[in-house]
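Methods: holo model generation. Sequences were used as deposited, without trimming of termini or removal of tags, and paired with ligand SMILES retrieved from the corresponding compound records. Each pair was processed once, and we did not select among multiple samples. The sequence and calcium ion SMILES for this entry were:
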Amino acid sequence: MRYPLFFLILVALMGLATADAYVINGLMDDWGVQPHIQWVPSMSSANWIEEDNWGSGHSNFPSGGEIYDAEALYCDIVGNTAYIALVTSFPNMGYDYSLPGDFGIDLDRDGIYEYGLKTTGSHQGGLYANPIWTTASTYSLSSPARIIGGTLLDIQPLVYNQSSIVENGFPTYIIEGSFNWASLGTPVQPFNLHWTMSCGNDMLDLTVQPVPEPGTLFLLGPGLAALWGFSRRRKGTKK
Ligand SMILES: [Ca+2]
Ligand SMILES: [Ca+2]
Ligand SMILES: [Ca+2]
Ligand SMILES: [Ca+2]
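and the model returned the structure below.
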């Protein structure tokens, strides 16, 4: 009886297919990104935008200089998990009365952010439904900024890491986190992912196009084919 072996192989293949695509550690090597040197991510499924040393939301962005620079934003949806990474000069402790903002998720791109992900504080990594947001204090067009209420759905690990990279005299920070994409109903339409700091001196907006993850099917395909072939052969030898 060699069925258990095939089931072990099948389980192993499924394990490979659902293994974590990104490591939430505040490092960008798993995205294939070296900030300020190589911005293009290695995975074609990853959505991204880069605005290092400028900003599309306002002619003077980043207002106040490098420390406010929101530099690049990434999002990749793998299976039931959405991974997010942000590169910025803005410190996790904030700067000059401004604090880091939270990620806004506008599923139907109507300007209302139905979900949000906390980047700092005791609920860091918290996924909120119907969040209550603050308005960016200096540049209100950069809103929404910070989550101050709403329904907490889940908390997953999220890292706001000061990297060893220095650019224009300021350290580069990486915010890296994930949330359960399925808990949003696994939408298939493009949505808007947003980040700014509480003053709104710079911001990033990323259009994310969720695409079905082909890796699962490619990996499962041979396993299922082998299982099917084996069960057929087994039926044949029984007769
Ligand atoms: Ca990482
Ligand atoms: Ca910069
Ligand atoms: Ca920028
Ligand atoms: Ca919306």
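The mean pLDDT is 89.
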